């Protein structure tokens, strides 16, 4: 039997996890499938540490398991950061960058709370069974009220779970928008990077096409495949902006969409998105009918 592996846990993260009983239960179940047991620290421990007790068959998998625990720590940190930034900046909407395209479509990046964002349709970064996965997805469903989750559950009951790259549209409950598009992005795998990028671009395209089908004029997209889906931020930004550009170009100016907003509460994310929008549309800046707004 290999020795237990201890991983220090930030006290701030441990405080957060203690308020998330379902998350701890899910983690324990996942580790049990891998024939491992997690020993959690005492509630009031000053220097908390997770202890991983693997079976002998997993002696060669210590490092991957340690990496997995660290990933959970990062997810919990991002979850708490999202809540702090969201409620600390409630009702704020900061324009970071905007680009008016020659055909009159506005592409803009905002630092804002998507739960109160004034557009026709917002995109929810969902999982395959349309259940909340923490962060923005959970916040959107709570703000919308129980009817939105009920509608999602009914869709899954009738049609089954969604595959990565797919998107469906529902009502918006109590949200200020008209509809919500639930988009299922891929989970990042470095050994399948090309496939992940393809599926993410497909997810974005499906979302934009759904908005067009319902004749919406404005759409707001969050970070799809971020958080627990682990998509690298810059690669995500390149993929989503390229997909937006490609989809709008294919519509040949006939799209009902006149505004595409990229929205997030994290400063790093909106800065990366702003830079990426500017870089990808850079070639258009020399055209006489293109107008640039920084």
How does this model look, in words?
This protein has 294 residues and is of the alpha/beta class. The protein has two domains: 5-83; 93-293, Leucine Aminopeptidase, subunit E, domain 1. It is 43% helix and 20% strand. It is built from eight helices and eleven strands. The strands form two sheets. The protein has an eight-stranded mixed sheet with strand order 7-8-6-9-10-5-4-11, sandwiched between helices. A three-stranded antiparallel sheet has the order 1-3-2. A hairpin with an 8-residue loop joins strand 7 (167-170) and strand 8 (179-184). The protein is globular and about 65 Å long. The termini are far apart.
Low-confidence stretches are 65-70, 83-91, 288-294
Distance between the termini: 60 Å
Helix fraction bin: 40-55%
Give the total of domains. 2
The beta-strand count equals: 11
What would CATH call the homologous superfamily of the largest domain? Leucine Aminopeptidase, subunit E, domain 1
Q: What structural class results from the helix and strand content?
A: alpha/beta
Tell me which CATH architecture of the largest domain applies here. 3-Layer(aba) Sandwich
Layout of helices and strands:
Blueprint: E1 5-8, H1 11-18, H2 21-33, E2 36-39, E3 49-54, H3 62-88, E4 93-100, E5 106-112, E6 121-126, H4 135-144, H5 146-159, E7 167-170, E8 179-184, H6 193-213, E9 218-221, H7 233-250, E10 259-264, H8 267-280, E11 291-293
Parallel strand pairs: 5-10, 6-8, 6-9, 9-10
Antiparallel strand pairs: 1-3, 2-3, 4-5, 4-11, 7-8
Helix pairs in contact: 1-3, 6-7, 7-8
């Amino acid at each position: 039997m290999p020795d237990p592996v201890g991983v220090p846990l930030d006290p701030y993260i441990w405080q957060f996890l203690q308020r998330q009983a379902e998350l701890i239960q899910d983690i324990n179940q996942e580790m049990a499938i891998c024939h491992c047991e997690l020993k959690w620290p005492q509630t009031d421990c000053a220097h908390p540490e997770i202890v991983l007790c693997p079976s002998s068959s997993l002696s060669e998998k210590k490092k991957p398991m340690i990496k997995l625990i660290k990933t959970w720590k990062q997810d919990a940190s991002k979850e708490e950061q999202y809540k702090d930034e969201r409620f600390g900046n409630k009702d704020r909407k900061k324009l970071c960058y905007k680009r008016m395209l020659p055909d009159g479509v506005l592409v803009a990046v905002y630092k804002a709370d998507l739960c109160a964002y004034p557009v026709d349709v917002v995109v929810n970064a969902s999982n395959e069974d349309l259940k909340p996965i923490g962060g923005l997805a959970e916040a959107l469903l709570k703000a919308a009220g129980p009817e939105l989750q009920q509608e999602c559950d009914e869709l899954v009951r009738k049609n089954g779970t969604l595959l990565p790259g797919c998107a469906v549209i529902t009502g918006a409950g109590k949200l200020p928008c008209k509809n919500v598009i639930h988009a299922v992005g891929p989970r990042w795998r470095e050994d399948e990077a090309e496939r992940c990028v393809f599926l993410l671009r497909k997810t974005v395209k499906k979302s934009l096409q759904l908005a067009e089908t319902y004749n919406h004029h404005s759409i707001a997209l969050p970070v799809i495949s971020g958080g627990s889906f682990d998509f690298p931020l810059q690669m995500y930004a390149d993929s989503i902006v390229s997909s937006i550009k490609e989809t709008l170009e294919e519509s040949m100016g006939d799209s009902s969409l006149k505004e595409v907003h990229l929205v997030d509460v994290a400063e790093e994310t909106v800065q990366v998105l702003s830079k990426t929008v500017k870089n990808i549309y850079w070639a258009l800046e020399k055209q006489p009918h293109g107008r640039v707004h920084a």
